[in-house]
Structures are given as structure tokens and as C-alpha cells.
Specification:
The protein is about 35% helix and about 25% strand. The protein is built from 18 helices and 22 strands. The strands form five sheets. It has a six-stranded mixed β-sheet with strand order 6-9-10-3-11-12, sandwiched between helices. Strands 18-19-20-15-21-22 form a six-stranded mixed β-sheet, sandwiched between helices. A four-stranded antiparallel β-sheet has the order 2-1-4-5, covered by helices on one side.
Length: about 525
């Protein structure tokens, strides 16, 4: 195994790192069914060396299934896969990896208490006289990191101490340690903030220069157009088209995926919606991560919190919800001072919190849709709980949940449908204030639109909404008011329709610095 990716190029890999017309991987006529339900219908796909090839489509379109077939997790019912013109059939992921086909899945497969090197070479550690050769393992990992321009990351670093972006990079380095010639990435930026995405962009650029083919799955349109050379669109398990990215617009791409243009995705304020009284008020709120927070949330209004990772956005929601509460300042609900010390108290006070990590914090994956939708009803009064339980089936239906039934375990649902269950769970409590932390993270454009429509409906019914999002188009498209944070403090407020430059200027401190120079 070579640690130096800049060594002799493998057959089919261009020496200069540019994409060639000759496919490195060719997929032809792939069919796949599960329990008699066909999910892929005759899929064709070509991926070239040195190319970033995007794979897009709504949840359930078949993207993940196709990736898992390439990775050897599943075997196709029909069709063929060719690598360098030779037919291959992977019965196990290790076969795919040894052939140079690696996959970085959305869910990390790392051991947090072990080092970077131990994770990279997990299960295949170099040995001397039967013992793990730690020095060699660290040296090989260091060579990989240096070759990719990642010298800031050391082999001895414990994975749990890394940011999400750092852990994502470890997954990619692990894949490359198999001398990967093609890497599939499933939603690699789903848990990353904008500034962390830049790190991944640079790494993908390095892979392209090395002649590595990248199959890139993402719901974020900006990334598709920033990174990819070509894009393949799947819909309902069938191939729609493969086009050069430069030959298609975002509106055209969305229309191919879901049948309607992107301009319809951010619904206007519903007729009859009025901004009412202040529902929740913070004055001088602070704790170890926040300082001097003054914020008003009004009935019928969608207020967005914008800022870089670590700016304090999530911390405000958690403080309001009694998770890491304010230790100074005052919070008022409906004009009355409140001291929320726990999530249970928050729920009883009429607050709801949709957390950014639905799988770890919002759902019990091995329980049913119905059980999850009733999870928090034990926090309200018996009368409210009984009313909420009666409303749950109707709420699930109104959200257009796609499931085999309300008794299906949520772990088998798509990301978008899992998020709908999370929303149903909170809607059953009839909250007056909704705290939405990254409400559309990792879900497809169709499911995003349903979440946006729900937000407008809730606002029209007088609910005060606080939305936290790392996607600036979402912030600008949905917010009635944008509050920008930096280093745990509010640094500015912008009206609806503000441009991305204004938001980022405040978030990075550039606007403040410019103002000081002008004075």
C-alpha cells in the first residue's frame, strides 16, 4: 500500500489530473429491489478519472442505493459494473476498497476515543512480529496527511477532539489509504458550517488534481455548481439525464429533480399573517458562551439567527429551552418573567425545539413513527397529552409523510420523512414558540419546501418562530428579520430580503471593522 498519492498514476488515471473522456467506472442497466419493491430501474452512469460527478435527486430517488452497490454493500439484481473496462462484481465492501472504490457515508464510521492513525488503519494495522507497529502506522498516516496538504492534522490526535469537518477529513483520508481511485461522498457537508465546507472544497480540489474520481451526492445546489463537472439526476429510481454542469441552471436542475422551479421553494407570507405582540423576550441574556443577548420573538414572525459556526446561534436556542440555561439576564414569555430550568419546563411553557441532529437528539430510531410523534406528550398536562395523541395521525398526514404506516420504525425512513416525524412530535404539543435549529439539514429540495410551507402556516396561526440556519439562501428566503451573531454576541439586525454579503459582513466582523475605519 502506497501512502504517496502523487506516485505513479494507476491505469486509467490521467497523469495531469484532468478528467478524460474514457470512463474509469461504467454502470449499465442496474436494477435493484428490496422485498419485492423495485428501487432502481436500469440505471446507467459513467464516472471519469479526475472528475467530480454529482448525483442528485429527492430522498428516495435511489442515490444511496446506487452508491451502496458501487461500494459492495448491496449487489444488483441486473446490470453490470465495469472498472477500467473490465466487469467487476463486489460481494463485500472490502472487495470494492481493494479495487480502489471507496465510499464516505453520511454517518461517520469512526472510533472517537482512538487516534487519527488508528482510525485510518483500523482492522489492517501494520505489524512487526505480531504486534501493531505504531511508529509505522503514524508515519504512513503522516505521509498521507502531508501529501494532501493536511499537515495541521496529526496522526496522534484523538478523533473526539476534532470538529465535524476534521472527522469528515479523517473518513476521506481513510478511504484514500486504500489507494482509492474513485471516492463516493454521501452528503459530506450535511453537518458542516460554511467555513468548514471550504476545507472540504480544497481537499476535493486536491483529489481532482491527483486524478481521483469523485462521485458527489448533495442536496446543496451551490455545492453542485461549485464543484462538479457533470451531474446525473435520478427520480423515483430512474435515470432522468446526465449533463455538463456548465450547461444547466439551478432552476433547470431543480425542475428535473422535482418537476417545479426553485423560485417556488420559498413561499411568500400567507394572506392574513400579521406580526403580533412580543411572545418571548430576552434582555441581557448570558452564560459561559453568550453575552448581552437582547432578542424579541413576535407572534406571526419568522426570525432567523445567522452567523458562523460557534457564533452562539444554537446556544441561544438551548438556553431558552433549559438545556444550558442563561445564568444572567431576564427572559419573559407573554410579558411575564420565566426561569426555564429544564426542557420539560420549556415544553410546558409552550416552547418546542427541533434540534440540528435529528437522529441523535430528536428521534428514537428503533421505535415507530407513532411512538416518536408522541415522545414529548408526557411533558405536558394529561389533558394536553390526550388532545395531542388524538391529533398526531392528522398531523402526520398533513405533513405528507411517506411511510409504510405509522407503525414503521423511523430508522427506515428517508431523512426528509424523519424530519417530518420530528416536526409532528412538536406540533402535537401546540407550541406558541418554535425554535428550529437547521430544520432542513440533509433533506431533499421537495421535503425542504414542505418544511418552509409549514413554517409559513405556523406563522399565520400566530406562532413565533426562531430559525437557525447555515444556508444563507434559506435565511434570506424565509426570514422576516435576520439577527446576526459573532462570538456569542448579537452584532446586527437586517430586514427581510437582505443580501448574503450584508449577512456575512456582520458575521465575520468585516462590516464592523469597515465602519470603524470610516469613523
Amino acid at each position: 500500500m502506497s501512502a504517496n498519492l502523487a506516485s505513479e498514476p494507476a491505469e486509467g488515471r490521467p497523469v495531469d489530473g484532468t478528467a478524460t473522456d474514457q470512463p474509469l467506472v461504467r454502470v449499465r442497466g442496474i436494477d435493484k429491489s428490496f422485498l419485492g419493491v423495485q428501487v432502481l430501474f436500469g440505471i446507467d452512469l459513467d464516472v471519469r478519472a479526475g472528475e467530480v460527478h454529482a448525483l442528485v435527486g429527492e430522498n428516495g430517488a435511489g442515490k444511496s442505493t446506487l452508491m451502496k452497490i458501487l461500494a459492495g454493500v448491496y449487489q444488483p439484481d441486473n446490470g453490470r459494473i465495469e472498472l477500467d473496462g473490465q466487469e467487476v462484481r463486489f460481494e463485500h465492501p472490502l472487495q470494492a476498497q481493494h479495487a480502489g472504490v471507496s465510499t464516505v457515508f453520511q454517518e461517520f464510521n469512526l472510533l472517537p476515543e482512538r487516534t487519527v492513525a488508528e482510525n485510518v488503519f483500523l482492522g489492517r494495522e501494520p505489524r512487526t512480529r505480531g504486534l501493531v507497529d505504531a511508529a509505522r502506522m503514524n508515519a504512513d498516516t503522516a505521509a498521507l496527511l502531508a501529501d494532501l496538504g493536511l499537515s495541521w492534522l496529526t496522526p496522534q490526535t484523538r478523533v473526539h477532539s476534532l470538529s465535524v469537518a476534521g472527522q469528515q477529513i479523517v473518513e476521506i483520508v481513510k478511504a484514500l489509504s486504500y489507494d482509492a481511485r474513485i471516492i463516493s461522498m454521501d452528503e459530506p457537508t450535511a453537518a458542516l458550517a460554511d467555513e468548514e465546507v471550504d476545507v472540504l472544497y480544497r481537499l476535493i480540489g486536491t483529489l481532482r488534481e491527483r486524478g481521483v474520481a469523485v462521485l458527489y451526492v448533495s442536496h446543496r445546489l451551490k455545492e453542485i455548481f461549485d464543484l462538479s463537472d457533470r451531474v446525473t439526476i435520478l427520480k423515483d429510481g430512474s435515470l432522468v439525464d446526465t449533463v455538463d454542469t456548465t450547461q444547466i441552471t439551478s432552476d433547470e436542475l431543480v425542475k428535473l429533480m422535482v418537476g417545479r422551479p426553485i423560485s417556488s421553494f420559498f413561499p411568500d407570507r400567507l394572506d392574513g399573517t400579521t406580526v403580533g405582540d412580543v411572545q418571548l423576550q430576552i434582555r441581557g441574556g448570558g452564560n459561559t458562551q453568550l453575552d448581552g443577548i437582547d432578542l424579541d420573538l413576535r407572534a406571526g414572525e419568522i426570525t432567523a439567527l445567522a452567523g458562523l459556526q460557534g457564533s452562539g446561534r444554537t446556544e441561544i436556542a438551548q438556553a431558552l429551552f433549559g438545556i444550558d440555561r442563561f445564568t444572567r439576564g431576564e427572559v419573559r414569555l407573554d410579558g411575564r418573567p420565566v426561569n426555564i430550568r429544564s426542557p420539560r419546563q420549556a415544553v410546558r411553557a409552550g416552547l418546542a425545539l427541533v434540534t440540528e441532529d435529528r437522529k441523535a437528539e430528536g428521534l428514537v430510531l428503533n421505535q415507530s413513527v407513532l411512538a416518536n410523534a408522541r415522545l414529548v406528550l408526557d411533558a405536558v398536562t394529561p389533558r394536553q397529552a390526550a388532545r395531542g395523541a388524538r391529533r398526531v395521525p392528522g398531523i402526520l398526514s398533513s405533513l405528507d409523510l411517506v411511510a409504510r404506516g405509522n407503525n414503521q420504525e423511523v430508522r427506515f425512513l428517508s431523512g426528509g420523512n424523519q424530519q417530518k416525524v420530528v416536526l409532528a412530535k412538536w406540533l402535537a404539543t401546540e407550541p406558541s414558540v418554535m425554535l428550529l435549529d437547521e430544520p432542513t439539514r440533509g433533506i431533499d429540495v421537495g421535503a425542504k419546501q414542505r418544511v418552509y410551507t409549514l413554517m409559513r402556516e405556523l406563522a399565520a396561526n400566530g406562532v413565533a418562530i426562531l430559525m437557525i440556519s447555515s444556508e444563507l439562501p434559506e435565511v434570506i428566503g424565509m426570514a422576516d428579520r435576520i439577527v446576526v451573531l459573532k462570538d456569542g454576541r448579537i452584532v446586527g439586525e437586517l430586514p427581510a430580503g437582505a443580501d448574503e454579503e450584508s449577512v456575512m459582513g456582520l458575521a465575520t466582523g468585516h462590516t464592523e471593522e469597515s465602519g470603524e475605519r470610516e469613523r
